[in-house]
């Protein structure tokens, strides 16, 4: 009975039902802004990371990275909660609650006088951010399905991809006229604007008849089902492993470009180029995946990522000096292009066996993979030693483990198909 109700919740209607006062274009922009708030909260503060650390009395520069990891940790916990709550109460109430939590976390961060307090504020921010990230996907899923949903997501992602590209520039511009606290205030104001926009223009998309009572028992059952499915769990862990190396890079990005290469105010430009490579990969994948399928795209991308990491792991020590900037950019652009292909495909593949619990299943998959990514990614980032080698090793090891998992899942599915035949 629960499976049937969940399926009805996932696919409600044939016809999109956007609020009468909101145009299709406005809906797309609003959903993209809600999803982008996480990227803005991470990337806009990257140029200020070392300055914040100095003001907070941080002795080891690597410890500044914990301000990034803490947000991801809060995000992982939040996804476990907001998805099931929104299935029970509707989409609007959890969003109001989540953005309120985010505002509280932002204020704690602004007022922080120590790294510990800052980490607590960032974790609370992340917990709040799980709401717009989860709710925006749920609202799109409430109103669209099949190709229509794919079209909507394509439009949303086109806008979403721009945020990581321009966010560091915004942060750097704010630093030119104010201190780092102004960055947090700017992001807080953006959250409040989204809250007002959403509350005044967007209607409730989950009808009462399709709501499912909240229960921790339901969360437990969903987690048990994911851990019982070798395919779902395998791809979820693979997504976490791939994301872990990316988080390791994200944590170290400011140190790599501003400290290692002394780029100063030019850091946002280089970071923006790297963000664009992920965006281009998403566009490339949308064209190629229909022709070759998700498995082929994933196997190819991970194989290329691992081969490149191994080549550079051998090359860098032989240089005897810091790797030239152009070579570092070449490595990162190629690697992040592979990451851009992997992100969407791995999540889709993890969700394939969970279609009957799509709503809560998506939240659980996102939460588990984020936990894996934060745990390993934080270790990778904290290993930063003034060179890019820890990042290269991180991609090589996480990519290698991912490759083993992918081929193991493939072998299991083939045996399962043979038994079924």
Concise structural overview:
This protein is 81% helix and 0% strand. The chain has 421 residues and is an all-alpha fold.
Overview of the molecule:
The chain is mainly alpha-helical and 421 residues long. It folds into two domains: 1-205, Up-down Bundle (Growth Hormone, Chain: A), CATH 1.20.1250; 215-416, Up-down Bundle (Growth Hormone, Chain: A). 81% of the residues lie in helices and 0% in strands.
Which bin fits the share of residues in helices?
over 70%
Please name the fourth-level CATH homologous superfamily of the largest domain.
MFS general substrate transporter like domains
Low-confidence regions: 1-16
Total count of helical runs of at least 4 residues:
16
Q: Count of DSSP E strands?
A: 0
- Largest β sheet strand count, sense and barrel closure: none
Overall domain count: 2
CATH class of the largest domain: Mainly Alpha
Annotated CATH architecture of the largest domain? Up-down Bundle
Averaged pLDDT, please? 86
Q: If you consult CATH, what is the topology of the largest domain?
A: Growth Hormone, Chain: A
**Order of H and E elements:** HHHHHHHHHHHHHHHH
């Amino acid at each position: 009975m629960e499976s049937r109700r969940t399926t009805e919740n996932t696919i409600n209607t044939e016809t999109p039902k956007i609020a009468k006062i909101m145009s299709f274009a406005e809906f797309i922009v609003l959903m993209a802004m809600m999803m982008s708030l996480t990227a803005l909260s991470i990337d806009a503060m990257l140029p200020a990371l070392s300055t914040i650390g100095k003001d907070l009395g941080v002795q080891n520069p690597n410890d500044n990275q914990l301000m990034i990891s803490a947000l991801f940790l809060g995000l992982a916990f939040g996804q476990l909660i907001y998805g099931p709550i929104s299935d029970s109460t509707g989409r609007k109430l959890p969003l109001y609650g989540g953005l309120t939590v985010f505002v509280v976390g932002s204020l704690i961060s602004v007022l922080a006088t120590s790294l510990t307090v800052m980490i607590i504020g960032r974790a609370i921010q992340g917990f709040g951010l799980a709401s717009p990230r989860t709710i925006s996907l749920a609202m799109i899923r409430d109103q669209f399905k099949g190709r229509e949903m794919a079209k909507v997501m394509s439009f949303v992602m086109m806008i979403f991809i721009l945020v990581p590209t321009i966010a560091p520039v915004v942060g750097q511009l704010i630093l030119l006229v104010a201190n780092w606290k102004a960055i947090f205030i700017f992001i807080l104001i953006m959250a409040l604007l989204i809250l007002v926009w959403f509350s005044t223009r967007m209607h409730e998309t989950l009808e009462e008849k399709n709501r499912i009572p909240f229960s921790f028992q339901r969360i437990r059952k969903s987690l048990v089902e994911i851990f019982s499915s070798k395919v779902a769990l395998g791809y979820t862990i693979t997504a976490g492993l791939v994301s872990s190396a990316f988080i390791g890079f994200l944590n170290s990005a400011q140190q790599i470009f501003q400290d290692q290469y002394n780029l100063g105010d030019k850091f946002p430009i280089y970071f923006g180029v790297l963000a664009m490579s992920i965006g281009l990969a998403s566009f490339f994948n949308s064209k190629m995946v229909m022709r070759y399928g998700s498995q082929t795209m994933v196997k190819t991308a991970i194989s290329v990522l691992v081969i490149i990491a191994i080549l550079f792991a051998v090359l860098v020590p032989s240089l005897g000096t810091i790797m030239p900037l152009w070579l570092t950019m070449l490595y990162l652009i190629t690697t992040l292009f592979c990451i851009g292909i992997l992100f969407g495909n791995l999540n889709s593949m993890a969700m394939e066996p969970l279609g009957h619990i799509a709503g809560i299943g998506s939240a659980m998959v996102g939460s588990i993979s984020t936990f894996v990514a934060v745990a390993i990614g934080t270790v990778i980032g904290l290993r930063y030693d003034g060179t890019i080698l820890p990042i290269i090793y991180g991609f090589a090891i996480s990519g290698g483990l991912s490759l083993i998992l992918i081929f193991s899942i493939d072998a299991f599915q083939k045996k399962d198909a043979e038994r079924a035949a």
